[in-house]
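Figure 2 data, in text form.
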Amino acid sequence: MKKVYVLDTNVLLQDPNAVFAFEDNEVIIPAVVLEEIDSKKRNADELGRNARTVSRLLDALRTKGRLHDGVELENGGSLKVELNHKSFQKLQDVFGEITNDNRILAVALNYYLEEQQLEQPRPVILVSKDTLVRIKADVLGLSAEDYLTDRVVTSNELYPGYLTMHVHPGVIDNFYNARYLPVTDLNTNYTFQPHEFVILKDELGTSKSALLKASADGKRLDPLYLSNEPIWGIGARNVQQRMALELLLNDEIPLVTLTGKAGTGKTLLALAAGLMKIEDERKYKKLLIARPVVPMGKDIGYLPGEKDEKLRPWMQPVYDNLEFLFNTKKPGDIEKILAGMGSIQVEALTYIRGRSIPGQFIIIDEAQNLSKHEVKTIVSRVGEGSKIVLMGDPGQIDHPYLDAYSNGLTYVVERFKNQSISGHINLERGERSQLAQLAADLL
């Protein structure tokens, strides 16, 4: 049986092509949704771009007929801009205030009541990214769903970049003797991703173990290329950090993604690896560090000064790590060091569109606050001979329309995990301090 889906504004602002995601069912866009989209179309951010995309899409559909009468979609469904079901009378006793959310609820409720008068009523479902709107719909007896089509993964299991296998001790001995291990020796049906790490442990319970990395084709396991010696005074404190350094310092892997909770060392490891490649090995011309300008909590408004002065509060976490790496003693020393070196550039992602960035080591911090479109724009800027590192915590998202399963960082991890030019690792253990680790786990 066909269904009726009533879309909230946030669904279209998250995915402008959402109208095509409901197969052969009827899609309803309340008139108030058009008003909210119109109010966003002049924004210079991702929401503004999506609002303009929705406007152009609906304008193109007008060529098929009048939208308030309904037009056919290529997937067999239909789209209708609803003008006649906005009566607020049914909601008056429950939600007295006539807000935009309540007007959308009224459209869904009136459609539902109208369908109940028919011999074979169609299910009416309100689709919204807003939790409270879905709760309100439930209070009214309406079916409500989150919009999940844009999610990169549907389960709670994100690709970690490594796995632990218990094997016969003879397999571990064979690896140490030959310095490599064919995947066929593991007697498993598991398909290894390129550059996926493997921790082999003795199934008999002894302390015998080995740390390996899958080859680019995933058919053999090799030892780690790098030793565990510190770089720029930073050494791996746990096995996942050692895996991260292996990826960061491998010139044959131009795309590296790092995920993990606060304090796991993502930014510090990436900066140390970048400095080694820039200053010691001269592999790249410049170290470019950027992060999205998305505030945590209430925005403090416009900041005084020139561009660098405006960016300093947003980039302070990066400067904190650079001060630690350079072991600066006085405030302002890090600016003098960076000015003298000239090979380190810190900036916001606002200025990256239209650029081509060859021969650079690029670090994008807090990438979980990027949308899929924004992360595509960034990665597609990478020029010949460059390496890009995307890192962040999918559990700490400040963007209003993203979650752990639909953000740009998760998108890159899942899309590139089977590509030979990329590598990923999820850092699990906090190394900032015991207090920071407890806060990440308990709070």
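Caption note: The first strand starts at residue 4 and ends at 7.
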